[in-house]
Amino acid sequence: MKNIIACIDGSAMSASVCDAAAWASNKLDAPLSLLHVLEKTVSPENENLSGSIGLGAREALLEQLTELDEKRSRIALEHGKHMLEDARQRAVEQGVNDVFMQQRHGSLLESLTELESDMRLLVLGRLGEDHDVSAHTIGSQLESVIRAMHVPILVAVGEFKAPKNYMIAYDGSDTANKAIDRVAASPLLKGLEGHIVMVGDDNDKNNQILNQATDILKKHGHNAQSALVEGEVIEVLKAYRHKVGIEMMIMGAYGHSRVRQFFLGSNTQTMISNSNIPLILLR
Amino acid sequence: MLQTIKRDWFSNIRGDLLAGLVVALALIPEAIAFSILADVDPKVGLYASFCIAVIIAFVGGRTGMISAATGAMALLMVTLVKEHGLQYLLAATVLTGILQIAAGYLRLDGLMRFVSRSVVTGFVNALAILIFMAQVPELIDVTWHVYLVAAVGLAIIYLFPLIPVVGKVIPSPLICIVGLTIAVVALGWEIPNVGSKGELPDTLPIFLWPDVPLNLETLIIIFPTSAALAVVGLLESLMTAGIVDDLTDTPSNKNRECKGQGIANIGAGLMGGMAGCAMIGQSVINVKSGGRGRLSTFIAGVVLIVLVVFLDEWISLIPMAALVAVMVMVSIGTFSWSSIKDMKQHPMSTNLVMVTTVVVVVFTHNLAIGVFVGVLMAALFFANKISRFMVIKRKSEQDTSSRYYEVVGQVFFASSEKFIGAFDFKEAIEEVTIDLTHAHFWDISAVGALDSVVIKFRREGTHVNVVGLNEASKTVVDKFSIYDKPEEVEKLMSGH
């Protein structure tokens, strides 16, 4: 059975990631796997600038560096175990039965790519341990992870509480239609109040496609309603979110190439960094 | 992409800056010494070191590795420079780069797996010996002053790092060179210095197309040198990359390194520099000094050229004997000391491969030939070892008119003679059964040996039954792709 993978690190987001993952695990009735990736840091200590090398310099240096790495890795491994154990207890308290813990060496992206085939949902924090929690930025690894993964990703933001409603940003594109289909088919959001929001002119064409999308959700037993609003995408979505009190955001992610993103910026990136509520990104 | 750039370049800024400085200081004497070795002006080696280090910082496949003008390459150029001059060397350098890029695209870096560990050790040791031997001419036919300066230089290099705190912060080769230059100038000793060995750079390198006729004749002149340079350059770089991989416990892209070195050499050739490659000694110094990223290689190149251009008058005063001391340190640091200690435990064949590689290189001054001989010997020893993994069991049955032979193990060119010899053709019997169910036929020699066994028996009037030939000869084919799956390999290697 496919897992929900929650990425735990030493950051303040870890608790929230754990809560979000536990919620999803209960909803989807899928096992939860807590992942801690031990990334290698490159900051050599004990530097020796003497610039001289004597007999057996290479062997001696190899031995010295290995010893150093060994010590560091042991500590990191131990530390990671404690973090995972804490996260596991937290998840169990919230009623998740199947919780696994795993630790892997290497980069986060590498590890996730390897695990992708058994992944149903990936849960990440918006910021990793290298950042300050209050910052309105997105973590250094988040974008590359989102771009590389093909599974849905839940990005935890702030403290997590089970959402009562959700909002789908809809634009009539293929990506958006696929997102609607996936939401409709998934048990994750069933029973929640759904809002399909489209930003565009109030004309027949837009109304028609929006209604089609809403019908799909309704047909699958979702409690869905739609809204067509005019204005600048990000601002309007934000305003709607505040007005209705939306608690979770669903969106397609990074529909455009990096080149376009470089010149025009990315809606996804802006949405993630401005958001105060958790997001589910569908690729 | 952006993240990779950030990681490769800026994840270790402080360490890289300091290590780059240390390496630059160590590169200057080496570049000068190797230019003198190749019989060209010091500026050729210095320009080369600058261009190669800076270019490889961007295009290389192994972060934290230092590439520049090297002794292994310099030794291969001597004849070309002597007979045809500097311009042909520059043309050969460009061609070397082109060949190395081609090698990168043909994925020849994969051939490194045939270079066994003992050949690598032999290469490293031979390199150390060559660097040491190159210093000997500077110590022949000179006054006692030179010996004294060299001896004091070595003492400074090895003893200075022992001083607490200061010793670990200031590079001792720098102290050696600066201290001895001041001392020699102050004492007014007239001993050979760098200025007496040729021109030093007084400007940044400029783009210059090598002044050679572009025709077939030129190609014939430079090709042999370029080919040897390309092979040795890639060998040393890939070996060094392996060493840095081990030291830093990080992977590298060997294929990118091949192409990167090609680009760097083309750049060096067009900027008036000689061909170069990765340097084992300098890379170790870099890692030891805390260098891990591309930045340290880049800084090493830039600092080198800045120092040389601005201090050229001072550099020309450096006594050769001080450089000799630095180079002796590099050669000692490059030599694999443990390979001597380990000789007692290693099998004879391994030691023989290592020593032969060293001896061939020292005699030919060509690391490519040494490695070729080493690889060949290692392959022969391996074939010989595997050929022993064959037994032929001769089972006597009650019935004296028939005989049963069971072949177990590897049958190929090296064991085919033993295979034929194991059958008793003198025995007068009516029927013989050869059971190949537990044998593996690896090549046509094995099939030929079986044929000749069958014919010999037939000539004695014996009827031959061969059992399990189909399975045994499955391994003859070259289409390994079929057997790449684990279960297929298991089936093939089990007793069928």
Written overview of the protein:
In chain A, helix 2 links the parallel strand 2 (32-38) and strand 3 (99-105). The longest helix of chain A is centred in the first third of the chain and has 37 residues, at 57-93. Chain A contains nine helices and ten strands. Chain A has a ten-stranded mixed sheet, with helices on both faces. Chain A is of the alpha/beta class and 283 residues long. With 496 residues, chain B is α/β, with parallel strands linked by helices. The mean pLDDT of chain B is 87. Chain B has a four-stranded mixed sheet with strand order 3-4-5-6. Chain B has 22 helices and six strands. The interface between A and B is large, with 26 and 49 residues.
- Looking across the biggest beta sheet of chain B, what order are the strands in? 3-4-5-6
Relative strand content of chain A: 15-25%
Gyration radius from CA atoms of chain A, angstroms: 22 Å
Percent of residues in beta strands of chain B: 5-15%
Low-confidence stretches of chain B: none
Radius of gyration of chain B: 29 Å
Find the count of extended strands of chain B (DSSP E, 2+ residues).
6
In DSSP terms, counting alpha (H) and pi (I) runs of 4 or more, how many helices of chain B? 22
Low-confidence stretches of chain A: none
What quaternary form is this? Answer: heterodimer
- Fraction in helix of chain A: 40-55%
Beginning-to-end CA distance, first to last residue of chain B: 50 Å
Concise overview:
Chain A has 283 residues and is α/β, with parallel strands linked by helices. Helices cover 43% and strands 20% of the residues of chain A.
Features:
heterodimer, A: 283 residues, ten-stranded mixed beta sheet, B: 496 residues, alpha/beta, four-stranded mixed beta sheet
Task: Describe the protein's topology.
The complex is a heterodimer of chains A (283) and B (496).
Chain A: E1 3-7, H1 14-28, E2 32-38, H2 57-93, E3 99-105, H3 108-115, E4 119-125, H4 142-148, E5 153-156, E6 165-170, H5 174-185, E7 193-199, H6 204-219, E8 223-229, H7 233-244, E9 249-252, H8 258-264, H9 267-274, E10 279-282
Parallel strand pairs in A: 1-2, 1-4, 2-3, 4-5, 6-7, 6-9, 7-8, 9-10
Antiparallel strand pairs in A: 5-10
Helix pairs in contact in A: 1-2, 5-6
Chain B: H1 2-10, H2 13-37, H3 42-59, E1 67-69, H4 71-84, H5 86-105, H6 117-135, H7 144-159, H8 166-169, H9 172-187, H10 216-248, H11 254-270, E2 276-278, H12 280-288, H13 294-310, H14 312-315, H15 320-334, H16 337-341, H17 348-364, H18 367-387, E3 390-396, E4 402-411, H19 416-421, E5 431-441, H20 444-459, E6 463-467, H21 469-472, H22 486-493
Parallel strand pairs in B: 4-5, 5-6
Antiparallel strand pairs in B: 1-2, 3-4
